[in-house]
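# step 3/5: fold
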Amino acid sequence: MRARDQVRLDCLRSMKSAFKYKLVEKKAESLSEADCLAIFQSLVKQRKEAIEQYEAAGKSESAEKERKELEVISSYLPKALTDSELAELVQASIKKLGASTMKDMGAVMKDLGPQTLGRVDGKVLSDLVKKKLA
C-alpha cells in the first residue's frame, strides 16, 4: 500500500473479498487449508481466462494487468510439482495400491489428492493417471 502499487492492492482486496465470500457461503468462522487453496486456484483460473480473452480482443494493457495479478496470487500458492515429481508420486501410488486398470483410477486419485492439493491442476493429474493405467 505504501509502495503505491495499485495493481497489487486491487488484487489483494479481491482476494480478501473472495475469502470473506467463502466464509459467508459456508457459514463458518474459519476456512480449511483446502478451502483456501481452492479459492486461490479459482482466482488463478479466472486470471488465466481473462488474459486469454483480453489478448484475443487485442487489449494488451488489460492483459498485462491480469498477468501482474496472476503473479501476486501465485506467490501465495505452494510450489507446484514438476513433471518428474508428479510422475514419481503417481507411480508410487499405483504401486502402493496395486492398481492396474482404469477401474482403479478413482482409488489412485483419492490417494494422490492430499499429496498434490494445490500443487498441481486436477486435469493434469487425471490425464497422467489415465496414461499410466492405460
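# step 4/5: annotate
The chain has two domains: 6-74, 83-133.
# step 5/5: archive (pending)
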